[in-house]
Amino acid sequence: MLEILLVVLPVFMLVGLGYGGTRWGVFKIETSEGMMAFAMKLAVPTLLFRAMMQLDLATVFEANLLLSFYIGAFISFLLATFGARLVIGREAPDSVVIGFGALFSNCFLLGIPIMERAFGASSLAPNFAIIAVHSTFCYLVGITAMELVSQTGKGMGGAVAAILRTMLKNTLMLGIAAGLLVNLSGLTLPEPIMQVVDMLANASLPVALFAMGGVLTRYEMRRSLGAASMVAGLSLMAHPAITLLLGTTVFPLSDEFLRSAVLTAAMPTGVNAYVFAAIYGRALGAAASAVLLATAASIATISFWLFVLHRLT
Questions:
Q1: Contact indicator for 22, 214 with CB cutoff of 8 Å
Q2: Most buried residue among 208, 245, 248, 297 by CB atoms closer than 10 A?
Q3: What's domain 2-312's architecture?
């Protein structure tokens, strides 16, 4: 168990350094936001570009992998949405936002470094396959559900347009798309360009994790704790449990793919849950509380799932 904690703790220590440094005034919040902008608009898209460019597309985009992960994610979304509506008594649009928190996991900023530390860099290919469609799937589900329950006047055509606009402005998606195009075309980038790509890609995760800690100081865990606890429980326990069940029974996966699917599913609610809440101006307190609570609790739950995976695979 100590070995597992030693895998997880350095990642969260880096997040904690960013959080503490910003909370105690060593760094201004604007510094963290600038670092996050650099990471998410340039460095991380470059890492995704490199990963997609180098993937063996014929083997890594396995249907069973995606079905195991995304059926689990969708079930978690439904449970959180209906739980918020029927049990907690939130309005329907608020319930969709709360459901989105159980849908959108932090599969990149936390999932990639923890997977790499636990199972090595060679294990990351299935993670990138999941990440490649993650934002598109989550926003498709979230925006469609919001259009179904709210009177925005856009209709489904407007919902599709909103999804497309969101994707086209998402630099992560652009990095993924560019990498896939280079992969499919068979092009080889000149060595000087690849050196720049490597430098940016290698800087992405440390910078993003530190900046994530700083940005988290903007959120306060003082409202909607019932909804936040439900989202955290579904994200950290239900989603990986469903994925594990599907990946071992209905959609059998190899050990390598099962590890990626379950560990990625075990990641806490991503900050995009708050972004989604801000787009619609609904359940902002619940979204912020869910991000903080799930991230804090995930130190223990990720360790648990690593223990389970080491036993099973």
A1: yes
A2: 208
A3: Up-down Bundle (1.20)
